[in-house]
Amino acid sequence: MSFFIYILECADKTYYVGCTNDLERRLKQHNESKWGAHYTKIRRPATLKYSEEFKTLLEARRREAEIKGWRRQKKELLWKS
């Protein structure tokens, strides 16, 4: 099983960083279902800007926490470089 961290850009141009084991399903939840995070639910639609794949949940959670601590400009360097 793989785990993913991802960055979404919401309709209001803010970013959301999350972690999942099924990226496609989770993106759909953020945009269409009541199971999406409250943050993205009120800022739909959310567009996938970036993702990384990991072998363990621990690795993914560590990377998620790292990225969440970054400023907006540093996050953008992940997909703009």
Characterise this structure.
The chain is globular. It starts with a strand and ends with a helix. The model has no long low-confidence stretch (mean pLDDT 95). It has one domain (3-80): 3-Layer(aba) Sandwich (GIY-YIG endonuclease), CATH 3.40.1440.10. A three-stranded antiparallel beta sheet has the order 2-1-3, sandwiched between helices. The chain is built from four helices and three strands; from the N terminus they run ββααβαα. Helices cover 43% and strands 26% of the residues. It has helices at 23-32, 38-41, 57-68, 72-80; strands at 3-9, 15-20, 47-54. It has 81 residues and is of the alpha+beta class.
Key attributes of the depicted protein:
alpha+beta; GIY-YIG endonuclease; 4 helices; single chain; three-stranded antiparallel beta sheet; globular; 81 residues
How can the largest sheet be summarized? 3 strands, antiparallel
Question: What is the overall shape?
Answer: globular
Overall tally of structural domains: 1
Helix share, percent: 40-55%
Please, how many helices?
4
Average residue-wise pLDDT: 95
**Total DSSP E strands:** 3
Low-confidence stretches: none
Radius of gyration: 12 Å
Helix and strand succession? EEHHEHH
Structural class, by secondary structure, is alpha+beta
- Rounded to the nearest angstrom, the distance between the terminal CA atoms is 28 Å
Q: What percent of residues are in strands?
A: 25-35%
Per CATH, the superfamily is GIY-YIG endonuclease
Q: What is the fold named in CATH at topology level?
A: GIY-YIG endonuclease
What is the CATH-assigned architecture?
3-Layer(aba) Sandwich
Write out the strand line-up for the largest beta sheet, numbering strands in chain order.
2-1-3
CATH class (first level) name: Alpha Beta
